[in-house]
Ig-like domain-containing protein (Dimorphilus gyrociliatus), 243 residues
Amino acid sequence: MPLSVDANEQDNVEFRCSPKDKDNAHTSWFINGESISKLDLDPSWVVNKYSLIISNVTAEDIQVIQCNISSHHGYIFANAYLNVNIKPRIQVKALQDVVEGATAVLAWKIIGHPKPNVYWMKGNVIISENARFRVTTDGFLRIFNVSTEDAGLYTCTAKNTAGKMSARGSLVVISPSVAVNKQDRVYNKRESTVKSPDNTETKTENLPKKSNKKIYMNSGGFEVEVTNIFYMSFLAFFSKFLL
């Protein structure tokens, strides 16, 4: 009867199911309870009379393999499990600048089978979890209340029985004042659609509206309420002659 197999990625695997009475017994294979004869098998799966061979196994080949031997005396049904160990892979995402005092999340996707053990380093020092540093179940690194001292090169290492992989990225921490200055330099343009008489559409930019804030100017002993920048300029010019 077939035995369970623990293989590494790209290995070739063979399951054997050979009856004692080969002249009067019939062997059939099943995958997760479904007859293999009804499945659209990948070319890497080859079924022989008494064996099932899978070449270059991948994570998609992790299955329950079942063998049924039947004869006029009855049948025997046995299960075997194909486990494929997948070397860890880390998909690095670009790190954005983090404002001092905020929470930084180094969310790099980590895959592998069995589930890899993950640890992080800053420079050459392994990070120990504490109130500010946390490694999530997905392997992400969270840094709470970030300071400028947290800026630098970080290394993520994932390891399992199939191997290990490391990836690096730099964290940049900026002060709140720098973040505000950057935001002030951002100019957001808004567009609106205007239809002309011939029903064609034209996109126009809505420039920032002039402030309607009330401004009071002293002109010849009188206070004048100004709500338009052009009137304000006009009065400022003629106030020279009135004083």
